[in-house]
């Protein structure tokens, strides 16, 4: 059986769990990640030297980084409509999956810790404002794209929407006035209603 190591409150773990659920995969999840279980211990570092979740164990195969795990699911346990095989459609899926992990996630840092996850110590207003400004700029790119297509990479849901949808949920978990982003809000509701990801798009998991 597949084993996924990571706490469900991690956005990157939820990417992997959501795709596994959409594909109907059978797996066992084991809690790792602070504050539940320290991933910096030798046992975990032997699997992922970065000390980060998620980690996938498939028999004797170990894999980390959520986009890589998602791609592995699609290749080994597919085909799945969430990972289109037509080259241009797959390229767009990969483009937005990468954009979420690098550009969008790279922008929210301090603001997400302070305003969504409420981590103690993240209380510098200047740093919050600076992070929120960068985050807003990236959300405007997403908002513009969602004004053109129903899903982030076109008219059909792909695994890129899992990553982007979780990021949009995080945006609306911020307890501060932000730009409305109506296209993103409508998109989030579509994902809640048209997929198995509703359980991962709740207020308890920013």
UniProtKB/TrEMBL annotation:
Pfam families: GST_C_2, GST_N_2. PROSITE patterns: GST_CTER (PS50405), GST_NTER (PS50404). It comes from the Bacteria. InterPro entries: Glutathione-S-Trfase_C-like, Glutathione-S-Trfase_C_sf, Glutathione_S-Trfase, Glutathione_S-Trfase_N, Thioredoxin-like_sf. Residues 1-81 form the GST N-terminal domain. Residues 86-206 form the GST C-terminal domain. This is Glutathione S-transferase. It comes from Devosia nitrariae.
């Amino acid at each position: 059986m597949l084993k996924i190591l990571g706490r469900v409150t991690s956005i990157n773990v939820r990417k992997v769990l959501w795709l596994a659920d959409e594909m109907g995969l059978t797996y066992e999840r084991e809690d790792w990640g602070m504050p539940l279980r320290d991933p910096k211990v030798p046992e975990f570092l032997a699997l992922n030297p970065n000390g980060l979740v998620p980690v996938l164990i498939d028999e004797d195969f170990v894999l980390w980084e959520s986009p890589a795990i998602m791609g592995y699911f699609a290749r080994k346990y597919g085909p799945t409509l969430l990972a289109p095989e037509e080259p241009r459609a797959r390229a767009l899926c990969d483009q937005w999956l990468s954009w979420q992990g690098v550009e969008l996630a790279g922008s929210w840092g301090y603001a997400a810790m302070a305003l969504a996850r409420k981590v103690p110590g993240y209380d510098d207003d200047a740093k919050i404002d600076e992070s929120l400004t960068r985050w807003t700029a990236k959300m405007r790119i997403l908002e513009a794209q969602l004004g053109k297509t129903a899903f982030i990479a076109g008219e059909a849901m792909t695994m890129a929407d899992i990553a982007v949808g979780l990021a949009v949920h995080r945006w609306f978990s911020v307890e501060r006035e932000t730009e409305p982003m109506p296209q993103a809000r409508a998109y989030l509701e579509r994902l809640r209603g048209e997929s198995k990801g509703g359980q991962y798009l709740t207020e308890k998991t920013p």
